[in-house]
Amino acid sequence: PERRAQPVADDVAMAQLTDTQSCQPALLAVGVALTRLLAQAAVTPHVVVGHSVGEFTAAVAAGVLSAADGVRWAAVRGQAMAAIEGDLGAMVALVADLETVRGLLVDGAVVANVNHPRQVVVAGTTDAVAAVAAAATAREINAVPLAVSHGFHSPVLAGLDLAAAVDSLELHDPTVPVASCIQDHIYADAA
Q1: Is 121 helix (H, G, I), strand (E, B) or coil?
Q2: pTM for this one?
Q3: Alpha-carbon span 80 to 102, nearest angstrom
């Protein structure tokens, strides 16, 4: 960790922390720290789940990954995302059901997350997401642009090659079940 002799302005600190290269490992580290804090208070999970980088936090909490491998993975993932060139994309949250949102999609935009039956997130290229937001607004659907650095969970990130980083991870059987946020079942053992 870096220690600075002088305080950093709030806007500079916020920009640095929300940059995906820093944010990915920071999110994982905070999740692991909270899990360990809860364990010290004798609060232990019966099942774990997380979304996006949180799924790796869940894997650490379940013993599938070591904390060191989890943070290393999140750092490599963040660095790879930060290295993307060109249109980094965007995201918008829509207060509408999935069917309605699917009807608003244009080329370059996809459903990234279904957070609630009436709250769906769209991600993709900057122009495509802006077109979806404009179409939603025209239909009086609340569209909230998300303050993110990339169009996460979309084809904008399709060019990432993280196979070597994934292959380097030492996986273990979970000590508690890990529910997938991508599939409708508990993860299998490491073997």
Answers
A1: strand
A2: 0.82
A3: 29
DSSP single-letter state for residue 179: B
pLDDT band with cut points at 50, 70 and 90 for residue 2: low
A 10 A CB-CB count for 15 gives 13
- What is the b/e burial string over 21-33, where b = at least 16 CB atoms within 10 angstroms of the residue's CB? bbbbbbbbbebbe
Are 66 and 117 in contact by the 8 Å Cβ rule? The answer is no
Tens digits of residue pLDDT in 30-46: 999 999 999 999 999 99
Query: pLDDT tens across 43-92, in order?
Result: 999 999 988 889 999 999 999 999 999 999 999 999 999 899 999 999 99
CA 122, 128, 134, 138 dihedral sign is negative
Query: pLDDT class for 27, splitting at 50, 70, 90?
Result: very high
Write the DSSP symbol of residue 103: H
Is 191 a residue whose pLDDT tops 60?
no
Asked whether the beta carbons of 32 and 70 are under 8 A apart, the reply is yes
Element (H, E) at 120: strand 119-124
What's the Cα-to-Cα distance from 153 to each of 118, 125, 158, rounded to whole Å? 19, 11, 9
Q: With contact defined as beta carbons under 8 Å apart, do 158 and 124 qualify?
A: no
Provide, for the chain, the percentages of residues in helix, strand and coil under a 3-state DSSP scheme, each rounded to the nearest 5: 45, 15, 45
Residue type, 79: Q
**Distance in angstroms (rounded) separating the CA atoms of residues 61 and 20:** 22
